[in-house]
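FIELD: query
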Amino acid sequence: MSDESSSAIAAVRKDWVAEHREMYLKSGGAEGHIMDITAVGGRSFATHCMIKYKGRKSGKIFITALCYGDIAGEVVIVASKGGADTHPDWYLNIKEMAEVEFQVATQAFRATWREPEGEEYQKIWDFMVDGFPFYADYQKSTSRKIPLVVMKAIEPIPVFKEDDATGLRQY
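FIELD: result
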């Protein structure tokens, strides 16, 4: 998928993405964690987390809501960007960071992160595609290998608030 095609898809979803993020933040995570995403090829009981990170160029703080899976006590997110030929900005930003912050429902954590490789990558990828079938379509639409990010909680932190973010979500 070209970046232009990805941009067109992002424009259509932009309102939903912004509304979802706002609902998650305003409710302290009581809403927005579980969402019906059957309209975009997902499941009716799909799980979403939020990540908070610093922009590598701007230095601004961003909060992005993403689908996630829980595997052996670690939280997995997928840097799919809807199958675009380039990585999402959030992924490029966290690659510059040793730690990331994430929130699942009403609990937030400071965490380390890593990218699985080899057999572990395939096992986790298969798990994520089973829960979120559209990831398989995204991979088919791009020549890049879609990265997986595995986050391990280190310690609890306060839940995210709207004013924590100094920048708007990057698409």
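FIELD: remark
The helical segments are 3-26, 89-94, 118-131, 134-140.
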